[in-house]
Specification:
By secondary structure, this protein is mainly α. Helix content is 74%, strand content 1%. Strands 1-2 form a two-stranded antiparallel sheet. Helix 4 crosses helix 16 (332-360), helix 5 packs antiparallel against helix 12 (255-274) and helix 7 (131-143) crosses helix 17.
């Protein structure tokens, strides 16, 4: 584990040094590299990698490499094409939804939104998974827009996604509660306990977000007065941030915009769910029902939220194993292979697209690592 961490750290440092030297900035001082890749980030990365490799060990502990390779050989690879297309379509729908939410700030062509979306998604590989902050920072820097207003639009995205996820979760609990058996355990916790905790946290978060957004949109002056007085010398900046944040939320006051955002949210989440479905046929799973697909999506979401790892490595795979093997009737080898293939498909799309836009927009890894601090 320590060897992998050192190797990853070295790769990042070499990439930053190489990019800077190739752009005429000369040799990168060691102090600058330490600032870019701080001890705090290394600790975050180390913790994420420990969780990731622990989850991976849990996933593959009972299968051999030969069995997994044999499962890869048995895949009908034709079905990977529609899966890739559905994954790509989800990002296209995401861009159209974000465009509507950004209208109070500016009318932005959809084509200009793909870069921050994909680089932001790729940013979840970095320590702390700062993808959303990175996305807001990139768009704000590119178009000279207030980051707080852009973050408001992202908050609305998460609100709609949480509502849809909570509805799916509630449906499964009402009609298929038996799948969350107390006998199925992961890291000493039963899946039943995880599911209940996830439902409570999601419901509470949804309530808090809803109240905050309502107050910001309809009672902005009261909110500014309440928060501003408690910020002392930061009162002016805090009130400006609330103004920008409120501006970013104005799209939900327009009934037509609200309707479009709702429709796009349903389409995007449907694409995220059905991106798994062609793999059901690629592996010729026993249960190809919609119920199995929804349970898979919910369980994977619960695990990746409970166990945050860089690029969801390990936690995603563990979620697939639990849903398909321990809750379903699929063999452990098939569930492990399914998890590896589906994670790889998502990662390839994000990494290739993110790298393309990084190179096109001439971004450096140092800028991406410092984006969170600059956004703050």
């Amino acid at each position: 584990m320590e060897l992998n961490l050192e190797r990853y750290t070295l790769v990042v440092i070499v990439c930053v040094a190489w990019q800077s030297s190739n752009r005429g900035h000369g040799t990168v001082p060691v102090q600058n590299l330490i600032k870019v890749y701080s001890l705090n980030k290394i600790r975050q990365l180390a913790l994420g990698l420990i969780i990731a490799f622990s989850a991976l060990y849990y996933t593959i502990r009972n299968v051999s490499v030969n069995e997994v390779l044999a499962s890869f050989a048995a895949i009908d690879y034709v079905y990977l094409i529609p899966s890739l297309l559905i994954i790509l379509s989800s990002y296209v729908v995401h861009a159209f939804r974000w465009q509507i939410l950004l209208l109070p700030l500016a009318k932005i062509p959809v084509a200009q939104l793909f870069s921050p979306i994909m680089v932001g998604a790729m940013g979840n590989i970095l320590p702390g998974r700062p993808g959303e902050i990175l996305r807001a920072w990139l768009l704000g820097k590119k178009l000279d827009l207030p980051v707080s207003g852009i973050l408001a639009s992202i908050l609305i995205e998460r609100l709609f996604d949480l509502v849809i996820l909570l509805l799916l979760f509630t449906w499964i609990l009402l009609f298929h509660a038996e799948v969350f058996s107390a006998q199925i355990q992961y890291s000493g916790l039963s899946v039943e306990a995880m599911a209940k905790g996830f439902g409570q946290v999601t419901g509470g978060l949804l309530l808090v977000l809803g109240i905050f957004i309502y107050c910001t949109v309809f009672h902005k002056d009261v909110l500014k007065k309440f928060i501003g007085k408690r910020m002392g010398k930061w009162q002016g900046k805090t009130e400006l941030m609330i103004d920008n944040f409120s501006l970013g939320l104005q799209s939900i006051r327009n009934p037509m915009s609200l309707l479009k955002v709702t429709g796009y949210s349903i389409l995007e989440n449907a694409a995220n769910i059905f991106a798994f479905y062609p793999l059901y046929w690629a592996y010729n799973l026993q249960d190809k029902s919609l119920t199995s697909l929804l349970i898979l999506m919910v369980v994977v979401t619960i695990i990746i939220v409970a166990l945050p790892t860089p690029a969801f490595l390990g936690s995603f795979n563990a979620g697939v194993l639990i849903a398909l093997h321990e809750m379903g009737n699929e063999s452990e080898v098939v569930a492990v292979g399914f998890g590896m293939v589906s994670w790889t498909l998502n990662f390839v799309v994000i990494f290739v697209a993110g790298l393309f836009f990084i190179l096109r927009d001439q971004l450096t890894f140092g800028q991406l690592l410092k984006a969170g601090d600059q956004a703050k």
